[in-house]
Specification:
The longest helix has 15 residues, at about 100-115. The protein has helices spanning about 20-25, 45-50, 65-70, 70-75, 80, 90-95, 100-115; strands spanning about 1-5, 10, 40, 55-60, 85. The protein is an alpha/beta fold.
Length: about 120
């Protein structure tokens, strides 16, 4: 699941957003299942979706993830428990669309997952 993270929130990219739809086209499941492109999720909502992989796009050096890391609920998320939380460049995953952005996303997927 791709998501923009900042100090105040976690904004998932569902399959209605470019990066989410790109991952869906590659065969990844959309755990968000939301008609909104960028739904803001609480930690509890994120745990309910239980993503297998997280691609985090931080807007700032410090994000809400730092706060969530101290919560036991965070550690129960499959992506976290299986060390499948990756920080990626927001410019490539969220702001850049089209061929160049897609190539960068694919490079990150292969680098991090080997798929």
């Amino acid at each position: 699941m791709p998501a923009v993270v900042n100090p105040k929130g976690f904004f998932a990219h569902s399959d209605h957003a470019y990066s989410g739809s790109f991952l869906a086209a590659l065969g990844f499941n959309d755990p968000v299942k939301n008609n909104t492109a960028y739904p803001q999720l609480t930690l509890e909502q994120l745990a309910e979706t239980n993503p297998q992989v997280l691609f985090l796009m931080p807007t700032d050096k410090e994000t809400i993830i730092k706060q969530w890391e101290t919560n036991p609920v965070w550690k129960k998320i499959d992506a976290v428990a299986n060390n499948k939380v990756f920080t990626v460049e927001r410019r490539d995953w969220s702001l850049s669309r089209g061929l160049l952005g897609s190539e960068k996303m694919l490079e990150d997927i292969v680098k991090n997952l080997g798929e």
